């Protein structure tokens, strides 16, 4: 019988290698990256284009173009497309971020030959009907009009622009005004340019017949005539704030306020990425973190507070964020700075270091448990110019990071005098 009152022994988490990714080139020059993964006969098939907020003429163009792919093709309307995919047990969805946009199809492997031509049609010949675009635009405007009444949205939008500067793609948080400014022709033109770009690529993950996959792609997406995109990515230098340290967005009807505070940080490819990510986690990246222990558990100022390291291709941001009652805003900001200074001045105790490592390494090991997760990881690494080997290397770096390295990271990358503060709410 197991001893229910005795805690089981904690085991060391072993490094998990990144699954082997192979590649080939279709007849039209389109690269295909594929990885066998899992035992279930399912496939995650993604068509990825090198455009997002960093490569669009108007904010939101990429997201609108990606969203419109779900609205049907030139042959099928949205309902017919949805019924057809559902009949095969398949699911289509799109993503659009800062560096890339993707069209993704999750499907049973046995239906690859039947669904390959449909996937090709979605990518190459979407319906792009004016009525569907106007409905999509109205829906997004309505959703964001509601979001504008929420303190978290207002704080995030203001903070992102304070960190990166007005108009910077990394500071983009779409609002109803952005969707209102979009025209149907903008979206159609962006699709025609970026989805036929010779910088596009395909990612396939899951348990499938590789020869069948390549043959299906060669007969479909591999026949598209690609060209050099007319749009170049835009990476202006981030704007270091010259305004007052704190920006207030007063919302008098709100009993709570959202706080967002932080500064510019390093890009994903920076050699300090992994130890700084670990240091950020100790500060506020999990439930047992210092910010949570102090500001939630001890003082009761908030239900939750976090610190995050957001990384892009050319820059990054370090952010502390939480919601709190209006009367606690100053105390939360003050205590947050105290915790930063404590990490800059004192070494993290061995037991706290070990707990944080076990949490981060355990969470890292779950980054690809499904073909969809693995596909997302591959897209992420390719978009940011990070080699796949970095996954296992990062595992090893975090496992070897000591208390002195954590203190060095806090001293080197967190500068309180450069941090901005945004408070949105009734405070």
Folded structure, characterized:
- With 427 residues, this protein is α+β, with helices and mostly antiparallel strands.
- The protein has two domains: 202 residues, Cytochrome Bc1 Complex, Chain A, domain 1; 180 residues, Metalloenzyme, LuxS/M16 peptidase-like (Cytochrome Bc1 Complex, Chain A, domain 1, 2-Layer Sandwich).
- It is 42% helix and 18% strand.
- The chain has 15 helices and eleven strands.
- The strands form two sheets. It has a six-stranded mixed sheet, with helices on both faces.
- Helix 3 packs parallel to helix 8, helix 9 crosses helix 15 and helix 11 crosses helix 15.
- The longest helix has 18 residues.
- It is globular, with a radius of gyration of 24 Å.
- The termini are far apart.
- The relative contact order is 0.16.
* Helix-strand makeup class: alpha+beta
> What composes the largest sheet?
6 strands, mixed
**Could you tell me the number of beta strands?**
11
Low-pLDDT stretches: none
H/E element order: EEEHHEEHHHHHEHEEHHEEHHHHHE
Q: Which percent band covers the strand fraction?
A: 15-25%
In DSSP terms (H or I, runs of 4 or more residues), the helix count works out at: 15
In percent, how helical is the residue content?
40-55%
pLDDT average, as an integer? 94
Instruction: Enter the CATH topology name of the largest domain.
Output: Cytochrome Bc1 Complex, Chain A, domain 1
Distance between the termini: 56 Å
CATH class wording of the largest domain = Alpha Beta
CATH superfamily membership of the largest domain, which one? Metalloenzyme, LuxS/M16 peptidase-like
How many domain regions?
Answer: 2
CA-based gyration radius: 24 Å
Widest β-sheet, arrangement of strands: 1-2-6-3-5-4
Q: Choose one word for the global shape.
A: globular
The CATH architecture of the largest domain would be 2-Layer Sandwich
